């Protein structure tokens, strides 16, 4: 066989092999693309448990304005020392009860008592001097009447008597000041209450105006809440409130007693003061100043029917407008859609915040907060027990 013919046969065989390999590669690529399209067309659904899906329903909400703040005592007395010296007879500790006027402690009164005795002796000396000048003046008046002394001598005697009287009055005032200094060494409680803080121990030397004890009256407590301007417009004096301590199931009754006439220039918030009502029974826990309470001021509802409501944590706020994650059913497939809503009145029910919403139909299915934020268009699958009619 000629060499040229052999070469042509080899080239033809190589071209045939190349065409076969190319067709195989193209077929495989088409198969891969088809698999990818099939995978993208039918993604695996995200399975949601029944507790992660809520149904939008109408619910009667105890409408109110949410409030929170720290408990304060209306009557607080800081017991200070009005005399410098060594503290004595302080036996009270935090939590001890005291009565109004009760002696709480004393300051060493040795110096003050000595100054009082000195002032009293000086007052006695001034009184004796006044008596002498009084007798001299009376004698001089008789001598003037008999013509034995002149009117000038009588006027001098009268001036000496007036000076003696002034000296006596000044000595009495000094004695009163010394007596007040002795009284200041005794520390008394101006109110009835309990010891909240003890700052000094016996034997310590205290200065003037040094704080020794703090007394609080637990019978009158209040809570100061800062409200946004829009919420403050709904609050009126006399409205009732229900407050709760974190971690406790006990509700505490309160009443709005004052509303600040102005808003804070920095925060634009309005201060509202709620007086905590006395406990209904002796078994009710007693609140203490410094505890943090939260709850709501009850408002009257003028709505003809209950609003559509959802737990407040089901409304997401990571977009410019609040929205919920609706579960929509299209062609037998359930997907997530973000639907903007308007949040209305809020209420606290069994410790959970609820809110009236507008923008979704009654009976719609909404993803609860436990499922987290889902991307719009996510395919989901809901357990049969959480089924509900899809929104139109």
With strands numbered from the N-terminus, the spatial order across the biggest sheet is 4-13-16-15-14-17
Q: Rg from C-alpha positions?
A: 45 Å
Succession of helices and strands = HEEEEEEEEHHEEEEEHEEEEEEEEEEE
What does the largest sheet look like? 6 strands, antiparallel, barrel
- Total domain count: 3
Round the mean pLDDT to the nearest integer and report it.
83
Number of E strands: 24
Distance between the termini: 82 Å
Shape: elongated
Spans where pLDDT lies below 50 across 5 or more residues: 386-392
Number of helices: 4
Structural features, described:
29% of the residues lie in helices and 34% in strands. It has 392 residues and is α+β, with helices and mostly antiparallel strands. The strands form six sheets. Strands 4-13-16-15-14-17 form a six-stranded antiparallel beta barrel. A hairpin with a 2-residue loop joins strand 21 and strand 22. The protein starts with a helix and ends in a 10-residue tail after the last strand. The model is unreliable at 386-392 (pLDDT under 50).
List the helices and strands and how they pair.
Blueprint: H1 3-41, E1 46-48, E2 53-55, E3 57-58, E4 64-73, E5 76-81, E6 85-88, E7 97-98, E8 103-107, H2 110-146, H3 151-183, E9 186-188, E10 193-198, E11 205-206, E12 210-216, E13 221-227, H4 229-232, E14 240-245, E15 251-263, E16 270-276, E17 292-298, E18 308-311, E19 323-330, E20 333-340, E21 342-349, E22 352-358, E23 365-367, E24 379-382
Parallel strand pairs: 1-24
Antiparallel strand pairs: 2-23, 3-18, 4-13, 4-17, 5-12, 6-8, 6-11, 7-10, 8-9, 10-12, 13-16, 14-15, 14-17, 15-16, 18-22, 19-20, 20-24, 21-22
Helix pairs in contact: 2-3
